[in-house]
Write a structure and sequence with these properties.
about 300 residues, alpha/beta, UDP-N-acetylmuramoyl-L-alanine:D-glutamate ligase, 13 strands, globular
Length: about 300
């Protein structure tokens, strides 16, 4: 069943200025609408490395949701565990400046309760056959507990990412049970109750080595935007991966692609540092485009020897 990804689907509505962006002003520009959501993006990113992930999620009854499922199917994501509910589709509205960075956003989260029902009814078959499990750590606590119980029952590694750190920080007990936790610099500051603004990658690497020991985490990666990413594990592995230099068009989805690359690497036998390098390459390919997900790659391009079922 490949990597199993569990989480939400969003529709991303994005606005780009034609001229110099003026905060609080009326900016003429263009507006695009694309399929989004952290987990949905990760599932498609994994599929774009010619792997075959399974996506467990919910959508609504609209034609947009049909489009979401059809696109995932075209990319060879297993969508048999996606269900339609009344309020199953989220919306993210964002405005970008001339550098491709988000300057304002509003999101409407979907109702994910049906995911708990899916896990009750089909969780054993889903997790038993998984290569690994990916989840948004800030989903409802009862859903998260079901995921971890099933993963531990079948001895599957769990990789956690964040869409809302203010919620995730309350799940420290669950984060300790993950095999690798990934977040950005600002989120790391919230998680560790500290301010890391202005820290160099070298400084953050030293800080992270100490922090994961005191917090009893297995592995953690902190992304630092244009400065790259730092990583550390409880067994002493640590390091820094610089970002690749590319022309920035749109940063949406680059963190999701980085996480997908990390999951791919760790699931299929790479070290933590090697997994970060895969994530960095996928992220750079997204930053240079207007897409939320990476383009097509072959597993062999990342040194992965994986038999892919057609």
């Amino acid at each position: 069943m490949g990597v199993v990804v569990i989480g939400a689907v969003f529709v991303d509505i994005k606005g780009y200025p034609n001229e110099l962006y003026i905060p609080a002003g009326r900016n003429a520009g263009r507006v695009t609408q694309v399929h989004g959501g952290v987990s949905r993006n990760v599932a498609e990113d994994i599929a774009n490395v010619e792997l075959r992930p399974t996506f467990v999620s919910v959508v609504d009854q609209s034609g947009i949701s049909d489009d979401v499922i059809n696109k995932l199917n075209r990319h060879k994501v297993n969508t048999q565990y996606i269900r339609k509910t009344e309020d199953g589709l989220g919306t993210w509205l964002a405005v970008f400046d001339n550098e491709g960075d988000v300057v304002a956003s509003i999101s409407k989260r979907p109702d994910l309760d049906e995911i708990g029902t899916i896990l009750d009814e089909q969780g054993d078959e889903i997790i038993k056959n998984a290569d690994s499990v990916v989840c948004e750590i800030d989903m409802k606590a009862d859903i998260m507990k079901k995921i971890f119980a099933l993963a531990e029952k079948y001895h599957k590694k769990v990789y956690a990412l964040v869409s809302n750190m203010s919620i995730a920080v309350e799940r420290r007990d669950l984060i300790k049970r993950t095999d690798c936790f990934v977040c950005n610099l600002q989120e790391a500051g919230i998680f560790f109750s500290d301010d890391y603004e202005g820290k160099t990658p070298e400084e953050m690497c030293d800080i992270l080595k100490v922090k994961i020991q005191s917090a009893e985490l297995n592995e953690m990666i902190i992304t630092m935007g244009s400065q790259g990413a730092v990583y550390a594990s409880s067994d002493g592995e640590s390091g820094y991966i610089p970002a690749q230099k590319v022309s920035v068009i749109d940063t949406t989805g680059c963190g999701d692609s980085f996480f997908a690359g990390v999951v791919i690497g760790l699931t299929y036998g790479k070290s933590l540092g090697e997994a970060c390098a895969i994530g960095t390459r996928l992220a750079s390919s997204v930053i240079a485009t207007k897409e939320n997900v990476c383009p097509r790659f072959l597993p062999s391009e990342f040194g992965l020897d994986i038999d892919v079922e057609e």
